[in-house]
Design the sequence.
């Protein structure tokens, strides 16, 4: 086993264990902190796949913004509300069935890709981020989706603001 | 060490070890004689009032939402900035710059909307 395999197994274990704690933690703040650990483990996996920019995005957007949003949402709720509510409801067998079906579907599709341990990683060019930038700005490629992404972000912002607005 | 991620991993490792060592050390050698006053929450020497879990102002949530949007915006601006700084750009640098300005201006419209709706006011 080389170093990257050890790091892979450590981060995979971190992801699985902390994901388990996310759903079992009684305290919602603890659940949010375990979620951060899960997301960080995924970022480490991105690094191992030589997708460094994606790893940075994972940390900046998911840990830096979305997890913070979750923690704010938890802090907005009242504590007695949390301790009285149950962690499961009557729908848990349905949820279990849907999860098992999804896992089976992913496993079935993944078999078709022919994953194996000795299959090497596709070579990643060192200037991949610059190539992404070039693709985003060149008119032959993705300049329209690049600008449309901005419109999409504004739509998300306006929608969130509208929902959060104190309607009089 | 040619892989720069190794440095980050080392920083992570040191960052985990440094807080663990004093906590574990004090847990090992510190005498334990708890009493109610010792166990009470300490806050600047003033006696604490009420619960520690207070309900936060809902406005924090709006700020976090707006921050999330602009956080995603920066994700797009990093590759854009690299393309602008490229040695042999595929298109005219001025064109790339204008594209970025349009991208930001569309998002500024969202910011102006939030501002005009008064969500940035600390009410």
Sequence:
């Amino acid at each position: 086993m080389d170093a990257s395999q050890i790091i892979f197994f450590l981060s995979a274990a971190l992801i699985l264990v902390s994901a388990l704690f996310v759903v079992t933690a009684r305290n919602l703040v603890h659940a949010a902190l375990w979620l951060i650990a899960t997301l960080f483990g995924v970022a480490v996996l991105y690094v191992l796949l030589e997708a460094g920019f994606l790893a940075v995005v994972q940390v900046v957007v998911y840990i830096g913004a979305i997890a913070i949003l979750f923690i704010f949402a938890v802090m907005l709720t009242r504590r007695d509300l949390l301790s009285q509510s149950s962690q499961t409801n009557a729908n848990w067998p349905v949820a279990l069935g849907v999860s098992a079906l999804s896992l089976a579907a992913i496993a079935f599709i993944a078999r078709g890709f022919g994953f194996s341990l000795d299959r090497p990683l596709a070579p990643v060019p060192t200037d991949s981020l610059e190539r992404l930038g070039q693709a985003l700005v060149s008119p032959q490629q993705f300049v329209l989706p690049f600008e449309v992404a901005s419109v999409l972000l504004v739509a998300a912002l306006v929608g969130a603001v509208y929902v959060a607005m104190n309607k009089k | 060490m040619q892989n720069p991620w190794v440095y980050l991993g080392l920083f992570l490792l040191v960052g985990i070890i440094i807080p663990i060592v004093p906590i574990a050390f004090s847990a090992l050698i510190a005498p334990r004689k708890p009493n109610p006053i010792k166990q009470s929450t300490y806050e600047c020497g003033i006696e604490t009032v009420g619960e520690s879990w207070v309900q936060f102002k809902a406005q924090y949530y709006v700020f976090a939402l707006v921050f999330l949007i602009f956080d995603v915006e920066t994700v797009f601006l990093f590759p854009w900035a690299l393309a602008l700084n490229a040695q042999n750009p595929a298109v005219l640098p001025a064109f790339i710059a204008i594209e970025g300005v349009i991208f930001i201006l569309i998002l500024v419209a969202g910011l102006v909307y939030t501002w005009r709706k008064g969500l940035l006011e600390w009410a």
In short: The interface with chain B takes residues 7, 47, 52-53, 57, 60-61, 64-66, 68-69, 72-73, 75-79, 129-130, 132-134, 136-139, 143, 146-147, 149-151, 153-154, 156-158, 160-161, 164-165 of chain A (CB under 8 Å).
